Amino acid sequence: MADATEAPPVAEAAQKQEKKVKPKPADVVVPPKKPKLSKAERRELQERQRAAKAAGGKPTKGDGAGKGGGAGDSGAKGGGKGVKDANGSTADKKGDKKSEDVRGGEGGATRRGSEEKMVSLFSHLPPPKAPFEIQRQISSTNQSNTLHPAILTLGHLYQTHSLLGGNTRCRAMLQTFAIILKSYTPPTTSRDFRHDVDHALLKPAFQYWTAQCRPHSVSMGNAFSFLKLAVANLDRELPWEEARELLLESMEAYVTERIEYAGKAISRHAGSKIQDSGDVILVFGKSEVINRLLLDAALVEKKKFRVIVVDARPLLEGRDTLQILSRAGISCTYVLLNALSYLMMREVTKVFLGASALMSNGSVLSRVGTACVALLANSNHIPVLVGSETYKICNRVQLESITGNELGDADEVACTDCARINPSNRWVGYMCSRVEDEKKETDVLTDWKQQDNLKLLNLMYDLTPSDFVTGIVTEVGILPPTSVAVLLREMSPQENNESAFKGTD
Question: Which pLDDT belongs to residue 502?
Answer without folding.
Answer: 38
